[in-house]
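Ticket closed. Logging final result for Bifunctional NAD(P)H-hydrate repair enzyme.
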Amino acid sequence: MRHAYTVEQVRSAEAALMAKLPPGTLMQRAATGLAVAVSNFLGRTYGANIVLLIGSGDNGGDALYAGARLARRGARVTAILLSEKVHAAGLEAFRLAGGRVDTSDALAGGRVGASDDLADADVVLDGIVGIGGRPGLRPDAEALVRRVEQHGVPIVAVDVPSGVDVDTGETPESHLNAALTVTFGTHKICHLVDPAATACGPVHLVDIGLDLPPAEVQSLQADDVRALYPVPHGESDKYSRGVLGLMVGSPQYPGAAVMATAGALAGPVGMVRYVGSSSVGQAVLAEYPEVVVGEGRVQAWAVGSGISTSGVDRDRFTRLIQQDDVPVIVDAGAIGALGTKHSARLVITPHAGELGQLLGVPRAEIEAGRLHYARTAAEERQLTVLLKGATTVVASPDGTTYVNPIATPWLATAGSGDVLAGLLGAFLASGLDEARAAALAAYLHAAAGTLASAAGPITAMSIAHALPAATRHLLSS
Ligand SMILES: NC(=O)C1=CN([C@@H]2O[C@H](COP(=O)(O)OP(=O)(O)OC[C@H]3O[C@@H](n4cnc5c(N)ncnc54)[C@H](O)[C@@H]3O)[C@@H](O)[C@H]2O)[C@@H](O)CC1
Ligand SMILES: [K+]
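Final structure:
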C-alpha cells in the first residue's frame, strides 16, 4: 500500500525522529537520496551541468547539500538563490564542495542573468519551497521556471513541485511541472491526488526512517490487489462467490447493460442476474447466455448505467436503497434520482459533472478540488464515492480514502464507466466492503485499460475483454 500524509502529520513524525538523532541527520539522509536519484535520472554525474533553484527554507537546504554531493562527484553545479536568506550550513557545504553561486540578478524580480547556466543545464533542481510553502510561485521564481521550460530543461522537484498545495493536491496558483519528484519519508497528498500528482511526474521516495500514524490517503499497489482479491477456493460455489443484480441499460441505451455485464462477469462474482426491460435482457443474453434474466436473491445491486434520471424506476430504486442488507452501486442516471435518505450501503460512481450536480457545485470546482469534494460528498451523504477522472478517488464516510495509482487517458471512452460499474458490483457481491471494492475495481479497470490500449485507442468492450488477462497477470506475479 502506498500511503500519503498531511504536512502536519509529516512534521510531527519528523520532530519525533529528530529528537532521537544528531542535528541535521534527516536532512543529510534526504540530500543523499536526492543526489543518488538525480544521478540515476541523468545516467551520469561527472561532467553534468546541474542548476539549483534555492528558496529560503530547508527545501533549499536539501538541494544545496545534494548539490554539494553532486559537485564532489564531478558535476558542474550552479545555485541560483531566490532569497537573501538561504540555508546557511547548506550553502557553506555547497561552496566548499566547489559549487558555484550565480550572483547575477536572480533576486531582481525575474531579470535573470543566469541564462547561460539555464540554457546549458542538463537538469534543474527545484529547491524553491517544500512542505513549508504556500501555494503559488512568486514572480521571480515564476520567471525563472518559465525560462527553464523554454529551454526544455527537465526539472527534478525536491520533495514537492513548488507552487502546488501539498495537503489537497490542488493547484490554485502557478506551479512548476516536474519530470521527477524526489520526496522524503513518505508520500504527501499532492503526490497522489490530481491535479498536483500530474505536476509531480514519477515520484521517487527516499526512506528517512519516519514512524507514521494511519494514513490520510492510500493507494493500492499490485501486492495489495493480490492480497484483497476474492480468489475462489475448493468449497466455493456460484452463490458463495456472490450474485450481482444489474438494473442497468434501457431501450435507449441497451449497450450499457451488455458492457456492465461484461465488466461483472470478468470480476470475481459467481453469477449475474439481469432485471430490466425484456428487449434489453435479450441483448444481454445474446452476448452472455450465462446471465440469469429475472428477479431473485442477490448480494449486491448495480443500478443506473445507461438509464436517464427520468427513466429510473423511482419506486423500485427507493425500495432498494431503503433496505439495509444489500449494498447498491448508484451509477449515471440513478445518481440524479438519489434523495437524501437511504439505509442501504451505497457506492456512487459519478464523474465530476455528476458530483457537481449532486452537491450543487460547478464542475470546474470539482475538478480543481477532487479529493475535497469526494470526501465532502461521502461524509455529508454517508455513502462511498468513486469519483471518476484521470486519477480516480474513492472516499468513504469513515474518512478512508484511496487514490488509484494507475491510469491511461485512453480509458475515457464511451461505456468505460458501465464496465467499471459491473466490475465494482462483482467485488461488492463477493463480500468486500465498499471502499475496498471500489479501490480494487478502479485499479483493475485501469490495469485492463492499460493492457488493452498498449498506448493506442480502446473500446469499452476491449477493456472488459482485457480484465481476465490483467487479473491473471496480477494474481500470478
Ligand atoms: N523537517 C525535516 O526534518 C526535514 C525537512 N526536509 C526538507 O525541509 C522542507 C521543509 O522545509 P521548511 O519548513 O523550511 O519549509 P520550505 O523550505 O518548504 O519553505 C518555507 C520557506 O519558504 C517561504 N515560502 C513560503 N511560501 C513560499 C512561496 N510560495 N514562494 C516562495 N517562498 C515561500 C517561507 O517564508 C519559508 O521561509 C521539506 O519539504 C524537505 O524538503 C528534509 O530535509 C527532510 C527532513
Ligand atoms: K520543491
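Residues 14, 18, 26-27, 30, 55-60, 62, 129-134, 136, 138, 158-159, 184, 208 surround NAX (ligand 1) (CB under 6 Å). No further action required.
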